[in-house]
Amino acid sequence: MTTLRKLLLVGALLGAGAGVGTALFALVTPGEERKQAMLKEMPEQYPQRRDEAARTKELLLATLQEAAATQENVAWRKNWMSGGGGGGGGGGRSA
């Protein structure tokens, strides 16, 4: 009998916790108008930011393609933007 009582109590507490969690989630979730406003404020909406992101992706892809085509460890370069073997020796570490 006490086991049944404990199980019912645990079930009631879990149900109450789930109810409180659901209520809090409903309170903090933005409405449809706020969602639309947030989407308009996204950085990708601005052409300059879009172009900058596209350029960054192009540079990353070019670096990955170069790294795949060479045996050099491009991560050790002092200037990643420069091509060729400009590692400089030592990878920028000093004793």
What does the overall shape look like? elongated
Radius of gyration: 28 Å
Number of helices: 3
The secondary-structure class comes to: mainly alpha
Number of strands: 0
Kindly state the percentage of residues in helix. 55-70%
What portion of residues belong to β-strands? Answer: under 5%
Distance between the termini: 74 Å
Run of helices and strands: HHH
Unreliable segments of 5+ consecutive residues: 85-95
Outline the biggest β-sheet: none
Mean pLDDT, as a whole number? 80
Textual characterization of the structure:
InterPro entries: UQCC3. Belongs to the UQCC3 family. This is Ubiquinol-cytochrome-c reductase complex assembly factor 3. GO terms for molecular function: cardiolipin binding; phosphatidic acid binding. The chain crosses the membrane at residues 8-28. With 95 residues, the protein is an all-alpha fold. It has a domain at 23-65. Helix content is 62%, strand content 0%. It contains 3 helices and no strands. It has helices at residues 2-28, 32-40, 47-69. The radius of gyration is 28 Å and the shape is elongated. The termini are far apart.
